[in-house]
Write a structure and sequence with these properties.
single chain, about 140 residues, two-stranded antiparallel ribbon, 2 helices, 6 strands
């Protein structure tokens, strides 16, 4: 059995659960996977989409593939960090449906960071994850 995760949204902090994440995640002892930032690059070498939505779809696909590779799922996510070029409320609103679909009801801790650039000039989004590894 995988170590248990407890998600908290204490009354002393804004309730993040309505937005699909938690303020705090507590993990019981166990193994963790630290998954490098996933971007919209494809193993086939195809071009990166110009739109944020197109990139979000590929980034989520790559993030799920990384979780699959370690035998984890969205329920095992402990922490997710999003790095976004030109982070604005409108762009976060455009991204959130893709993240919520990836989370599939799980509400891991989530941090969004606005950045000037990512590893390639065409990239707009990167998702980094920490996941527990099922036993």
């Amino acid at each position: 059995m995988a170590p248990s995760l407890t998600y908290l949204n204490p009354a002393s902090l804004p309730d993040a659960s309505a937005f699909g994440y938690s303020q705090i995640t507590i993990m019981e002892p166990g193994r963790l996977a630290f998954i490098s930032g996933q971007v919209a690059w494809q193993s086939s070498g195809e071009a990166v989409p110009d739109s944020l939505t197109g990139q979000a779809e590929l980034v989520v696909k790559n993030a799920k593939a990384a979780l699959d590779a370690v035998g984890a799922s969205s329920e095992d996510l402990v922490m997710v960090r999003i790095y976004m070029v030109d982070l604005t409320p409108d762009r976060i609103e455009e991204l959130m449906p893709h993240l919520l679909a990836m989370f599939d009801g799980a509400k891991p801790s989530l941090t969004g960071v606005g950045v000037a650039a990512l590893a390639g000039p065409e990239l707009q989004l990167e998702i980094e994850m920490i996941a527990r590894l099922p036993s």
